[in-house]
Design a protein that fits this description.
about 15% helix; alpha+beta; 5-stranded antiparallel β-sheet; 9-stranded antiparallel β-sheet; 6 helices; about 325 residues; elongated
């Protein structure tokens, strides 16, 4: 049987023996009734027989079949006249995926996030600021503007140090899918007064608290207008950045196809049923603390903001050991 999470059994066609046992156990109306009445409290076989108006022998036989299928737990307890067999529900839910794993193709999903869609702006320091596609947002060089409601309209933002934290959720997650790879891309560059080349800055990326690595941006890009940069933004200032792509799979982490670390999806503990936390910024321990510009889909050279792609494969859950399957019953909710 598949590993039980709480009182849930998640089965596939590979669990043919378990599927057959459960299907047989639930093919009898009497046994279905036993499962129903055990949803309220534990009962001994005599109480089950009385509740369903069954002979003791019939109640005992049905209890044995349900126990062998793993649907209920039977515990022998001392009673007034010997041993009492106390029955309780072992499972509250059984799911059966009747599609063969071989017929489930690998899947991928692309998630887009506006650069102003962060949930946390941590230790932001100036110079800093934010622009929409039509003008400035708030007051320049004030970290407080990073929590203005208008931040969701941002198309260019910048700061000297600090981190922005973004949280991505996967639509319609499936507990039977695991992340095989992920890819994060965004357009960024250093932050200097006006613009400047060279002007190095260490820009770090973390996912779920694990640092993928650090990219050293060579400059704050300007001198010509970005292909998407609005005409009202003066060419004396930052115009565009570099499109950087971080890719993580079982072989490690790659930045623009060059391996930079051994971090894998397993290290990141990526779970499709939980949010994925992405942090981008200039950490306090940077050797080159030259700030950061981050571009939206209507600024710079590339028509995208933050883009997170996830690749999935069918998850083969671990099996229960015999010891785990035969664990003693404990009363109350698990």
């Amino acid at each position: 049987m598949r590993e039980i999470q709480g009182k849930l059994a998640d089965l596939t066609l590979k669990d043919s023996d378990t599927l057959c046992r459960i299907a047989h156990a639930l093919s009898s109306p009497a046994r279905v009734e036993i499962m129903r009445i055990l949803s309220r409290n534990s009962m001994n076989i005599g109480e089950i027989a009385q509740a369903l108006d069954l002979p003791m022998s019939s109640a005992a036989l049905n209890v044995r079949i349900l126990k062998e299928a793993g649907l209920i737990h039977v515990e022998n307890l001392p009673g007034v006249r010997g041993t009492v067999r106390l029955c309780s529900r072992k499972l509250d839910r059984v799911t059966m995926n009747l599609v063969s794993e071989e017929d489930i193709p690998d899947a991928s999903v692309t998630l887009a996030m506006p650069i102003g869609g962060y949930s946390l702006a941590e230790n932001i320091s100036g110079t800093c600021g934010m622009l929409s596609s039509t003008g400035t947002i708030g007051v320049m060089d004030s970290p407080a503007i990073f929590y203005l409601p208008d931040r969701f309209q941002a198309q260019l933002l910048w700061f000297r140090r600090g981190f922005l934290e973004y949280r991505f959720s996967v639509p319609e997650p499936s507990g039977q899918m695991q992340v095989r790879w992920l890819e994060l891309s965004f357009e960024a560059c250093s932050e200097a007064p006006m613009y400047r080349n060279p002007w190095q800055s260490d820009i770090a990326v973390e996912i779920n608290g694990v640092r993928l690595g650090t990219w050293t941006s060579p400059c704050d890009c300007g001198g010509r207008r970005g292909s998407l940069t609005p005409g009202w933004w003066d060419t004396d200032f930052t115009q565009f950045g570099f499109l950087k792509t971080w890719y993580v799979d079982e072989e490690g982490t790659f930045l623009d196809c060059e391996k930079i670390s051994d971090v894998t999806p397993r290290d990141l503990k990526v779970d499709p049923e939980k949010c994925i936390v992405v942090r981008i910024g200039v950490p306090e321990d940077s050797v080159h603390a030259g700030g950061m510009n981050l571009f939206g889909e209507q600024f710079g050279n590339y028509p995208q903001a933050l883009r997170l792609r996830l690749g999935f494969a069918f998850r083969e859950p671990p099996r229960l050991t015999e010891q785990a399957e035969d664990r003693p019953f404990t009363s109350g909710k698990e």
